[in-house]
Design brief:
Blueprint (H helix, E strand, L loop, with lengths): L1 H121 L5 H16 L5 H22 L3 E8 L5 E9 L2 E6 L5 E5 L8 E4 L6 H10 L12 H8 L3 H6 L5 H24 L5 H14 L1 H11 L1 H12 L5 H20 L2 H33 L4 H53 L3 H6 L1
Antiparallel strand pairs: 1-2, 2-3, 3-4, 4-5
Length: 470
């Protein structure tokens, strides 16, 4: 039994060790294989190391070359970057310079525009037609939106060259053909002779010869007749041969322009418009009334103390009837008053005073008659002048609405109406006011004289009781 147990144990141990033995064999085989593979790998590694060692030197040299190329490329990049920065800075400077030059060119072009305008306004009207094409071309280039600054400056320089050339030619005088407006309004061809600021013209047909001036409202040269034709032949000789006497206008045309602005009194009155009719009507009425009143007041004789002495001498020596006859000879309002007072001698003094006062009142009404009309004329004339001023300004603003403010000649009608009516309103009002003051003072003096004579008469007239006692 024990044998069986032992055998069983041995068999169990054998059965347990059999797999371990096979595992040992398997592990030994794997180790051997791994060792073989390791040796093969080591051989391959050694071969690879040898191959790497062979290729390392060329690769190192190539790497060094590439690194040098990289450094060179980096240096080139840095140089290119610096060059780019420099070029960017130069570009910015060039842009600023171009902008400054452009502004300078624009400024010069504007200066040349101003010069051309001054040149056009200062050049003599007779030679303006010679420079008109280049001036218009320069003006068109300035206002054109498509024209470049270069083309604008080019056209302007043509005007400047023409102006410089003109200075050389005009210094010693020159003769050139052209057209001018004759005194009768016809445009005639002929020849100009220009010496400094003075020009003369002689037409081809001989119908227009004289000084050349620019008239108001005209853009063409106008021929002004020379007095008595004394310079006609010298002018024609001058434009033909370049020699001859030349008339001079020291006022540079101002005298002719002033002469053209002069107008007669009738033209001046007509320029005032329809309001001048009532103003002149008031002036005529005031003048007529003033003349009539002047004649009336001048015919009234003032009575002094000497005549009063004669009157009372007549009354005392020859009686009341003789005194009344003397009063008649005195005449006028004072004579009527004294005659009325003497006619009531013997009646109460209060009655005589009332009778004489009645004559004074009648004389005051007659003397002051129509004087208020002169004062009315003096008050109404300025108002009519103001009315004409208002209507003239209304007409002026209408003209401005239609034609604008560019042509002063168009506006002159309304302005003349506005100013002339005010002028004549004051011309009528001031003398009328003075005449009214003078006439009123004269009338007051006559009435005061009558009152003085009446008081003197009443003071020296004896009372009724005294006369009865006498």
């Amino acid at each position: 039994m024990k044998m069986k147990i032992f055998e069983v144990a041995v068999l169990g141990v054998a059965l347990c060790l059999a797999p371990w033995a096979r595992a040992q064999e398997t592990l030994q085989g794997v180790a051997n294989q791994a060792g073989a593979e390791l040796e093969e790998a080591l051989e391959q590694l050694s071969a690879a190391r040898e191959e790497i060692g062979k290729e390392k030197i060329p690769l190192s040299k190539k790497l060094s070359g590439l690194e040098d190329e990289v450094l060179a490329a980096r240096r080139q990049y840095d140089e290119a970057a610096r060059e780019l920065d420099n070029r960017s800075l130069e570009t910015a400077n060039l842009k600023n310079e171009i902008k400054a030059k452009s502004q300078e060119s624009t400024y010069i072009a504007n200066l040349l525009d101003e010069y051309i305008r001054n040149f056009e306004s200062r050049v003599h009207i007779g030679e303006l037609q010679r420079y008109k094409p280049v001036i218009e071309a320069a003006r068109a280039a300035s206002v054109s939106g498509d024209a470049t600054t270069l083309s604008r400056l080019t056209e302007q320089m043509k005007v400047l060259e023409g102006a410089l050339d003109r200075v050389k030619r005009v210094a010693g005088g020159e003769v050139f053909p052209g057209t001018a407006v004759a005194p009768n309004g016809e445009v005639k061809k002929g020849t100009f002779a220009l010496v400094g600021p003075v020009a003369v013209f002689a037409s081809e047909d001989g119908g227009a010869t004289g000084l050349v001036e620019q008239k108001l409202g005209s853009t063409e040269p106008n021929v002004v007749d020379v007095e008595a034709g004394a310079f006609v032949k010298p002018i024609r000789d001058l434009v033909t041969s370049g020699q001859g006497d030349m008339p001079m206008d020291p006022t540079m045309g101002s005298a002719f322009k002033l002469a053209e602005t002069k107008e007669t009194i009738v033209e001046h009155i007509i320029s005032g418009g329809p309001t001048m009719v009532p103003i002149l009507g008031l002036a005529a009425c005031a003048l007529v009334v003033a003349l009539i009143k002047w004649v009336q007041m001048a015919s009234v004789r003032e009575v002094g103390s000497a005549q009063m002495e004669k009157l009372f001498k007549e009354v005392n020596e020859r009686g009341v009837q003789a005194g009344a006859a003397f009063a008649k000879r005195i005449g006028g309002h004072v004579g009527d008053m004294l005659h009325a007072g003497l006619s009531h001698v013997g009646e109460p003094k209060e009655l005589i005073e009332e009778v004489m006062f009645e004559k004074v009142l009648a004389a005051r009404l007659k003397v002051n008659n129509m004087l208020p009309f002169i004062a009315l004329c003096a008050s109404a004339a300025p108002l009519l002048g103001l009315l004409g001023t208002v209507t003239g300004m209304i007409n002026t603003f209408k003209m401005i609405t239609v034609f604008g403010t560019g042509d002063a000649k168009t506006l002159s009608g309304g302005i003349s109406e506005a100013l002339v009516t005010t002028e004549y309103g004051l011309i009528v009002a001031i003398p009328s006011l003075l005449m009214h003051a003078f006439m009123s003072r004269k009338a007051a003096g006559l009435i005061q004289n009558m009152e003085k004579v009446a008081i003197s008469f009443l003071n020296r007239l004896p009372g009724a009781e005294d006369r009865k006692a006498a």
